[in-house]
Amino acid sequence: MYNFSNFVAELEEIVSKSSSDKEIIHHSSNSMKKLLSNHELIQDEHLSGEPTIYKSADNGFIIQLFTWSPGCETPVHDHETWGIMGLYENSLKIAEYCFLPIDNNQTELREIQTYVAEKGDVCYIIQPDEDIHHISNPSDQRSISIHVYGKQIDEYNIYDLENNQVIHKVV
Questions:
Q1: Interatomic CA distance for residues 53 and 122, integer angstroms
Q2: What is the DSSP string of 28-42?
Q3: Which of 132 and 47 is assigned the larger pLDDT?
Q4: Domain boundaries, the chain
């Protein structure tokens, strides 16, 4: 059965041999789908502690495991890198945003799409145009997701839509 070690080995090869972020996302999404098909992969004891479960010494990417309690949500944010997310348990609501032109050569951040990612689905983000998003768990059950990012997330932006501000965060 395809396991976490197989996934890591494939990602190391994909990231080291790919010539673009889009190529990485395409190939790693296929690997993520194989990983998500292993229904014995994650046990309850894996769900506590630090979310980063792997950091590539050679290629810089990280793998994180998140548990989303009912009602849990992120602010609208970016990661300043490519990423994929696989839904292992339940579902999550995803809203994607982009800057759209308005008057006088200005832009405004607007929601362009909202969808529900179900168990087994794989979603992606890619800079600069497809990176801003909001994730929530509107259900009454926990959700579990596996994330791969192109680098350690040391800084990112939060987008305050109400006040039209970008808040840069350093972790």
A1: 18
A2: HHHHHHHHHT-TTS-
A3: 132
A4: 4-170
